[in-house]
Task: inverse folding
């Protein structure tokens, strides 16, 4: 409703578009929503109620139709001051335009880097292209941050540079001192991630910090579920949206993972919302990045980022390494991509490749040779050929699953995960969950099938199953 009213969309046109949409779930959604919307509007009319958007809509209609009333209010206000201008919607800008004349003045304060309410109708274009909407205006950039330390401010500058649609600024901090940003990548956030964060929070409280000094932020409610039982009454927990305007000495940003319930979380790209207003995916991603910017700049002194090994949010990778502290707080489990050299063409490549992208050489044996520092003895060759044979069996299974579920193969398990499975040959769930890139949910969905293949492979007489001759 916010988006429909804020964008000044005709509800009848939206119903028509939804009914003609080729995707059944879209038309069903609006069929279900229609009686609720109509009942809500009827209730407001009957009770003579206006919601916030209605106040704007009816005020604009009145000012459009009645020139006498419009002039009365134009003459009444010599100065128009608008705060948080980055979050204005179409109706609010219309109201400003109705009140603004050559005789009065408009003064707006806002930060386009913190525009995070597009999902409810806010339009960042009004501040980014301010001079287009308000002719002969002047822009004054306020480029000093009085809250966060120098490291956090510089890191946030680097993150937001990835956005194309913005006003260019270079923010500097008053506080030129400051600790680096702490990063922890858990094996499984709901387990060791929660444990480490709760332990750290308790130590901070025991060390003299109070409840108001610490803030736990999260993008989606699912991200905080595993933390809640352990953090009740200890510290504040907020969604990033509700934390706008807040600050704390120490901020933990949890749930920094990839995927559907991670961060970024571009749910507004769903076709259901595109019926109201067509959105550009890249611009939606930029709003998610602005939300990340808001989150990290809530911290005054220290910032802790919590993710998962092999499932990190892309925003973590946008923070230059010079601002990350990889030694303190907790042991960092995030492994950098390793390089190997192809023995055939001598090119240096990532260890995620199975075959050299330059010459096509098989790299699986080479990878194990590097990890285990082996010479190519006959015995070692036999073991590595076993690994390769198992790897191929696992790839076949992955291909079958991907075909059946109509997914890219890497969504099931990445090649690097299959390599580890072939090398370690886990026999139990516990052993399998120690492998980077395999978490509880992924194991429950696919892991049992892969364990079965591994156990079948191990139960065979390898001398009959594969040719180990050198």
Result:
């Amino acid at each position: 409703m916010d988006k429909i009213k804020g964008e000044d969309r005709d509800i009848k046109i939206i119903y028509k578009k939804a009914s003609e949409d080729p995707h059944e779930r879209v038309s069903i959604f609006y069929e279900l929503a229609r009686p609720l919307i109509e009942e809500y509007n009827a209730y407001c009319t009957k009770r003579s109620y206006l919601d916030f958007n209605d106040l704007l809509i009816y005020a604009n209609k009145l000012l459009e139709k009645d020139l006498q009333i419009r002039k009365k209010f134009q003459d009444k206000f010599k100065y128009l001051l608008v705060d948080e201008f980055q979050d204005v919607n179409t109706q609010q800008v219309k109201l400003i335009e109705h009140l603004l004349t050559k005789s009065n003045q408009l003064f707006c304060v806002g930060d386009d880097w913190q525009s995070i309410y597009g999902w409810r109708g806010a339009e960042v274009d009004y501040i980014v292209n301010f001079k287009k909407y308000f002719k002969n205006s002047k822009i004054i950039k306020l480029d000093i941050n009085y809250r966060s330390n120098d490291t956090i401010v510089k890191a946030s500058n680097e993150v937001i540079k990835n956005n194309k649609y913005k006003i260019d600024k270079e923010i500097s901090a008053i506080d030129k001192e400051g600790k680096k940003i702490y990063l922890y990548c858990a094996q499984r956030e709901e387990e060791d991630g929660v444990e480490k964060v709760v332990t750290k929070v308790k130590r901070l409280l025991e060390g003299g910090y109070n409840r108001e000094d610490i803030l736990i932020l999260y993008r989606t409610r699912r991200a905080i579920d595993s933390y809640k039982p352990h953090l009740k009454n200890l510290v504040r927990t907020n969604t990033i949206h509700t934390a706008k305007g807040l600050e704390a000495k120490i901020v933990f940003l949890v749930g920094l993972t990839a995927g559907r319930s991670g961060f970024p979380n571009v749910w507004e790209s769903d076709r259901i919302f595109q019926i109201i207003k067509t959105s550009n995916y890249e611009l939606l991603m930029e709003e998610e990045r602005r939300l990340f910017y808001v989150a990290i700049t809530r911290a005054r002194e220290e910032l802790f980022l919590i993710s998962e090994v092999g499932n990190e949010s892309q925003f973590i990778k946008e923070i230059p390494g010079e601002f990350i502290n990889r030694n303190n707080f907790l042991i960092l489990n995030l492994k950098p991509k390793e390089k190997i050299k192809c023995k055939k063409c001598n090119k240096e490549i990532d260890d995620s490749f199975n075959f050299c992208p330059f010459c096509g050489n098989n790299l699986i044996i080479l990878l194990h040779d590097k990890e285990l520092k082996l010479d190519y003895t006959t015995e070692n060759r036999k073991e590595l050929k076993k690994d390769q044979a198992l790897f191929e069996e696992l790839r076949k299974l992955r291909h079958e699953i991907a075909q059946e579920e109509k997914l890219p193969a890497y969504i099931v398990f990445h090649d690097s995960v299959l390599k580890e499975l072939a090398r370690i040959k886990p026999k139990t769930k516990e052993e399998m969950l120690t492998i980077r890139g395999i978490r509880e949910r992924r194991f429950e969905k696919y892991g049992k099938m892969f364990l079965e293949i591994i156990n079948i492979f191990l139960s065979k007489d390898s001398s009959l199953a594969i040719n180990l001759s050198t």
In short: The longest strand covers residues 299-308. The CA atoms of residues 381 and 470 lie 7 Å apart.
